[in-house]
Write a structure and sequence with these properties.
Layout: E1 2-6, E2 27-28, E3 31-32, H1 33-37, E4 43-46, H2 49-56, E5 94-99, H3 106-116, E6 122-126, E7 129-136, H4 142-152, H5 156-161, H6 184-202, E8 207-210, E9 213-215, E10 220-221, E11 225-229, E12 232-234, E13 239-240, E14 244-247, E15 250-252, E16 257-258, E17 263-264, E18 268-270, E19 275-276, E20 279-281, E21 284-285, E22 290-291, E23 296-298, E24 301-302, E25 313-314, E26 325-328, E27 331-334, E28 343-344, E29 349-350, E30 355-356, E31 361-362, E32 367-369, E33 371-372, E34 380-383, E35 386-389, H7 392-405
Parallel strand pairs: 1-4, 1-5, 9-12, 10-13, 11-14, 12-15, 13-16, 14-17, 15-18, 16-19, 17-20, 18-21, 19-22, 20-23, 21-24, 24-28, 25-30, 28-31, 29-32, 30-33, 32-34
Antiparallel strand pairs: 2-3, 5-7, 6-7, 8-9, 26-27, 34-35
C-alpha cells in the first residue's frame, strides 16, 4: 500500500522544531511518523515548499539533512499492532494519507488498521483537521497521482476534505492525537515513549542483557552500568560506557554513544550517532547531535546536527513552581506544564556554561551563550547579551565541517 504523509496549514504552529524538517520526521516516543508508517508500505512526504525542494534535490541514496531517508520503504517487521487481516487483498488499490502532525503511537496504528479493515474509502477528522484518509487510486496511475498530491503542498488536507469520502465518526477521533502547539510535543512524547519501546520490542530482534535492558546486534555495554528501571532499548552499534545510570523508559538509537558517568533518565530518546554525557531527563535528541559533556538537559528537544557545549544547563522548573509560558506565532501561551525546558533547533549551538531559561527556543542554525533569557531567532546569535545575525552560507560551512567529522561525504551547500 502506498502511504502519503502530509503537512497541513497548521504545521507552522509547531515552531522551531519543524523549521528545518517535516513534522513527520520528528522523533516522538521512539519513532518518527515516517518510520512508523513504513510498516504499511512505502512512504512519500507532502511537505512545505522549502522542504520539498530539499527532498527533490536529494537522491534516494542520500539522507535528508535531518538524518532520515528521502523515501521510507517498508522495512519494519510486522507485529501484533500492524497485521493486516485476511481478506484485505485489494489494499494496493488504496492510498493511505496520514497527517504529519499525528503522534506516532500504538493507538495510531490500531486506528489505521481499523479503518483499513472497512475495505472502503474514508476520512477521519480530529479538531476540524483531516487526520487519516483512505482514497482509492489504481496502482497504474499512482506515480501521476503522487505528483499531483505533492503539487498541492499544504493544500492537500483541504483537497482531501473536499473529496466526499465516507466520514468516519467514532471513538477513533479521541484515539488519534494531532499536535497543535510546540509545547504539546513534550507531553505527546512522554505519553508515547513506553508504548513505542514496546512496539520495538515486539519485533523480536533484541536480547535482554539484564532486567529491563534490551540490546540489538552489535550494541555494547561496558560494565558497570546500573539499570534502575526499564524498559531500555539500545539499537545496533550503540555503545554505553561504564558507570552510567539508566532510568527507563529510554530509547538509544543506532551507533549512538553514551559517555561514562552519564545519567540518562526517564522518557529520553537519543537519535542515531549522537554522543551524550551528563544528565538528560525526558528529552529528545535528534540524530547526529552532540551533548558530550556534563550539564543538564531536561524536558527539552534538540534538533539534528546541534552541539550542546560543556556545562550547558536548561532550566525546566520555575522557582514559583507555576506553569511555564511558551512563545508562539500566536503570542505567549500558558503551556499548562510545570516542567518545560528548551527547544533547540536543527544546526544550533550553545557555548560552554550556557544557562537557558524555561520554555526558551533557540532557532535553526542559531548560537547561544551566557544566560539565555529569551528566544533566539533562526540564523542569529545571542552571545551573553551581544546579538548578531548569521547567514545560511555560514551555517552551511559549519554543517560541512560537522559532516566531515562524522565521515559523511556530501555537499552541504544543497541544504
Amino acid at each position: 500500500m502506498q502511504v502519503i504523509v502530509f503537512e497541513d496549514d497548521a504545521v507552522d504552529a509547531l515552531g522551531v522544531a519543524v523549521q528545518a524538517r517535516p513534522a513527520c520526521d520528528l522523533t516522538i516516543g521512539a519513532f518518527s511518523l515516517v518510520e512508523l508508517l513504513g510498516r504499511f508500505g512505502p512512504v512519500q512526504r507532502v511537505v512545505r515548499g522549502h522542504l520539498e525542494r530539499h527532498l527533490a534535490g536529494a537522491s534516494l541514496r542520500q539522507m535528508a539533512v535531518w538524518g532520515g531517508a528521502v523515501e521510507k520503504n517498508h522495512t519494519l517487521s510486522p507485529h501484533r499492532h500492524s497485521r493486516m487481516e485476511d481478506g484485505f487483498g485489494d489494499r494496493e488499490q488504496f492510498v493511505l494519507f496520514v497527517n504529519a502532525r499525528a503522534v506516532p503511537s500504538a493507538d495510531l496504528i490500531r486506528a489505521i488498521q481499523k479503518l483499513l479493515n472497512n475495505h472502503n474509502t474514508c476520512c477521519l477528522e480530529c479538531h476540524g483537521y483531516v487526520a487519516i484518509a483512505i482514497v482509492r487510486e489504481p496502482p497504474e496511475q499512482r506515480d501521476r497521482f503522487i505528483e499531483q498530491c505533492k503539487s498541492l503542498g499544504t493544500g492537500l488536507s483541504q483537497w482531501l476534505a473536499e473529496q466526499n469520502l465516507n466520514e468516519h465518526q467514532s471513538s477513533l477521533q479521541h484515539v488519534v492525537e494531532l499536535v497543535s502547539e510546540s509545547h504539546e510535543l513534550f507531553g505527546a512524547h512522554e505519553r508515547a515513549i513506553e508504548g513505542a519501546i514496546r512496539m520495538r520490542l515486539d519485533q523480536g530482534k533484541y536480547e535482554e542483557r539484564k532486567q529491563g535492558l534490551y540490546l540489538a546486534a552489535d550494541a555494547i555495554v561496558e560494565e558497570p552500568v546500573v539499570v534502575r528501571r526499564g524498559p531500555i532499548v539500545v539499537e545496533q552499534g550503540a555503545r554505553i560506557g561504564p558507570f552510567v545510570c539508566l532510568d527507563g523508559p529510554i530509547w538509544i538509537g543506532r551507533d549512538a554513544r553514551i559517555n561514562p558517568h552519564a545519567w540518562i533518565r526517564e522518557a529520553t530518546a537519543i537519535g542515531r550517532t549522537c554522543i551524550v554525557g551528563g544528565e538528560v531527563l525526558s528529552s529528545v535528541i535528534e540524530s547526529y547531535s552532540n551533548k558530550s559533556h556534563d550539564g543538564f538537559l531536561g524536558h527539552s528537544r534538540v534538533g539534528s546536527w546541534a552541539n550542546i557545549a560543556a556545562g550547558t544547563i536548561t532550566s525546566n522548573l520555575k522557582v514559583t513552581y507555576g506553569t511555564i509560558r511558551s512563545h508562539t506565532r500566536r503570542g505567549t501561551l500558558d503551556s499548562g506544564r510545570q516542567f518545560l525546558g528548551a527547544t533547540i533547533g536543527d544546526f544550533a549551538k550553545t557555548g560552554i556554561h550556557t544557562s537557558i531559561s524555561c520554555g526558551v527556543s533557540i532557532g535553526v542554525a542559531a548560537m547561544a551563550a551566557g544566560n539565555v533569557l529569551r528566544d533566539v531567532p533562526d540564523f542569529s546569535s545571542d552571545l551573553g547579551g551581544t546579538a548578531s545575525r548569521t547567514s545560511p552560507q555560514q551555517a552551511s560551512t559549519v554543517l560541512g565541517r560537522m559532516m566531515a567529522r562524522r565521515g559523511i561525504a556530501t555537499d552541504p551547500r544543497r541544504y
